[in-house]
Amino acid sequence: MALILALLSTALLLFFFTSSTANALSLNHYDKTCPEVESIVAKTVEKATKKDKTIPATLLRMHFHDCFIRSGGPTWNVPKGRKDGRISKATETIKLLPSPAFNISQLKQSFSLRGLSTDDIVALLGGHTLGFAHCSSFQNRIRKFNATHDIDPTMHPSFAASLRNVCPINNKNKYAGVKMDPSSTTFDNTHYKLILQGKTLFASDQALLSNPKAKNLVYKFASSKQSFYKAFVNSMIKMSSLNGGQEIRKDCRVVN
């Protein structure tokens, strides 16, 4: 479940970071043409995910929403009617994603290009409470960090030591890694608590503490799950309203 959530999270971000604000979406896009779309999508996408098939944009968003609910997260009305993009493979678009090594300036620049604010950054990164991270995404923090420190000084020493055990030098297991947090199948505010403890995996998450506004939000969300849920829903709706697709696929698995 954790791995599926991580893959879906990456996929949704891929749609987001290759989108623009063109073509307005609506909550009742399928009310007349396909009123049972919600239940149909849940069943169809689950089958497609198991078979590693390409999933059209609107279906992916709706299934992503369902995964949040199933893992205890908040619910929201998903804007529908998004056209499909011409690129939908992670290997082809991964370079457009914000890097887990980004500092706060790089994060702000990347998100602002899509009309998202610092508030959105902090809220959306809370999604890292779900899923799994491979060693490659945080390896640079636990060895040869810079000329002065072997380990990132913002990382808690005992946490770094545990990661070094999981990800040894010359690691040959490409699947090696750890859960994003101890409750990686439950959508909660644990991730923010870990950031404050120096026990988060990505440098980009820890970088939130280097910005006064972002830092205040981390403290706020760490102390109030409801505040986090409200902010997350607002940012997800804002993000999912971006729509830069070019076509409606005749075959869900391939571009026209």
Summarize the main sheet: 2 strands, antiparallel
Helix content: 40-55%
Whole-number count of domains = 2
The CATH topology of the largest domain is Peroxidase, domain 2
Query: Which stretches are poorly predicted, pLDDT < 50 over at least 5 residues?
Result: 1-8
SS content category? mainly alpha
**How many strands appear in the DSSP assignment?**
2
* Separate helix tally: 12
% residues in beta strands: under 5%
CATH class of the largest domain: Mainly Alpha
CA radius of gyration: 19 Å
- In one word, what is the shape? globular
* CATH architectural group of the largest domain: Orthogonal Bundle
| Terminus-to-terminus distance | 31 Å
Corresponding CATH superfamily of the largest domain:
Peroxidase, domain 2
Keywords: Calcium, Disulfide bond, Glycoprotein, Heme, Iron, Metal-binding, Oxidoreductase, Peroxidase, Signal
Catalytic activity: 2 a phenolic donor + H2O2 = 2 a phenolic radical donor + 2 H2O
Domain Plant heme peroxidase family profile: 57-256
Protein name: peroxidase
Question: Can you offer a commentary on this structure?
Answer:
This protein has 256 residues and is mainly α. The chain has 2 domains: 34-71, no CATH class; 100-242, Peroxidase, domain 2 (Orthogonal Bundle), CATH 1.10.420. 46% of the residues lie in helices and 2% in strands. It is built from 12 helices and 2 strands, in the order ααααααβααβαααα. It has helices at 2-17, 37-50, 57-70, 90-93, 104-112, 118-125, 139-142, 157-166, 190-197, 203-206, 212-223, 225-240; strands at 132-134, 177-179. The protein has a two-stranded antiparallel sheet. Helix 1 crosses helix 3 and helix 6 crosses helix 12 (225-240). The relative contact order is 0.19. Residues 1-8 have low confidence and may be disordered.
